[in-house]
Design a protein that fits this description.
This protein starts with a helix and ends in a 23-residue tail after the last strand. The longest helix is centred in the first third of the chain and has 21 residues. It is 41% helix and 13% strand. Strands 1, 2, 3, 4 and 5 form a five-stranded antiparallel sheet that branches.
């Protein structure tokens, strides 16, 4: 039995490394907005998210899943955030409409929230790191299921009116959204990384 376990480790490790290496960020143009997404697949992504490491078992991640018609409600909040953030002299109706239609570019949007009670024992950065790992777990599992994904952030998607929609109140924070969908035909985003040796010092 010990020998079988020992032999299985390299295969498992290589499979994990392959998933990590092959995952890509898909811009909206590379997502098919009309291809169906199985809700059970989303549940698997969220199941992976809940196993992110978290100091003190704070479990700070909070998610809201937008599918179907609910994406239009999200789009209205994006549009409202644009109006509230944009000075009158810079306002453009086309830009507001873009924000309104933005969630329709992918079939599923998952809000990435960090819960804080205001009486937390641990530093905020630790919960931020934990939520970021949870988001990465979502995207890794999405890749294994044949989906493309992207984590989007910024002042519009993190605006308080959007935050209110997903049920978060300060000091909790909305850290953006991960959208998920089937890749459009022919979409193959590229990625490169410099050798790890250029970023590591070994001391012995």
């Amino acid at each position: 039995m010990m020998q079988q376990d020992t032999l299985a480790i390299p295969t498992l490790t290589e499979s994990l490394l392959q998933v990590i290496r092959e995952r890509r960020t898909f811009p909206p143009k590379d997502i098919d907005p009309n291809a169906p997404v199985n809700p059970e697949d989303i549940r698997l992504m969220l199941e992976a998210a809940r196993w992110a490491p978290n100091h003190g078992l704070t479990e700070p991640w909070r998610f809201t899943v937008f599918m179907g018609e609910s994406r239009k409600l999200l789009g209205e909040r994006f549009a409202e955030a644009y109006r509230l953030l944009t000075p009158p002299e810079k306002y453009e109706p086309e830009a507001e409409e873009f924000q309104r239609r933005r969630p329709l570019a992918a079939p599923v949007w998952i809000s990435i929230g960090m819960y804080r009670s205001g009486q937390d024992r641990y530093p905020e950065w630790e919960d931020l790191a934990s939520v970021a790992i949870a988001a990465q777990h979502i995207m890794l599992v999405a890749h294994t299921l044949g989906y493309g994904s992207k984590w989007v952030s910024g002042e519009i998607v993190e605006h308080e009116r959007v935050r209110d929609l997903v049920g978060l109140e300060p000091p909790s924070k909305l850290l953006g959204f991960v959208f998920v969908g089937r890749p459009a035909p022919g979409a193959q985003p590229k990625a490169t990384r410099s050798p790890i040796e250029s970023k590591v010092r070994w001391l012995s």
